[in-house]
Design a protein that fits this description.
globular; alpha+beta
Length: 157
């Protein structure tokens, strides 16, 4: 098993991981947002005006990309936002999501010490993140689109 930085050649496989999680965890129209993120990585730009720096990693098992996950540090805020954490549907419930979560939290502590770890997720996954120690700060019904409530979460210090 290997977690390594994303490269442009990983884009197709990352999209496949995403698609394997539609509609259970992601709305299909979020693919364009993932494409925006991957394009920013490929062009060394920033996908959001609130982003200061972006990071993205892939998880390989026996040479096959089975998951990906990233985060970004936020301009003018002492926060690092987890995003695009996903494991291919065929490999879920085996601890790989926790590996990607722990890896990113450790990277944040290394790259941006003192930043609060935050996350936006849906009603379908917030309980999973609670098990990992995150707390819900707020909920916006349909915040990610119809049927996908937005849960704003943070990892207490």
């Amino acid at each position: 098993m290997l977690i390594r930085p994303y490269t442009h050649s990983d884009a197709v496989k990352c999209r496949e991981v995403f698609i394997s999680n539609v509609p259970k965890y992601f709305a299909a129209d979020e693919l364009s947002k993932l494409d925006n993120w991957l394009n920013a990585l490929d062009t060394d730009t920033l996908p959001y005006t609130s982003a200061e720096a972006i990071y993205f990693y892939v998880l390989e098992l026996k040479g096959e990309l089975i998951g990906c996950a990233g985060f970004y540090t936020m301009k003018g805020e002492n926060k690092a936002q987890l995003n695009w954490g996903m494991v291919h549907a065929d490999y879920q419930h085996k601890g790989y999501g926790k590996l990607l979560f722990d890896y990113r939290v450790n990277k944040i502590h290394e790259i941006a010490p003192g930043r609060q770890v935050t996350l936006w997720t849906s009603q379908h996954t917030y309980k999973y993140y609670e098990k990992l120690g995150m707390k819900v700060e707020s909920v916006t019904p349909n915040g990610f689109g119809y049927g996908f409530d937005k849960h704003v979460m943070y990892l207490p210090d």
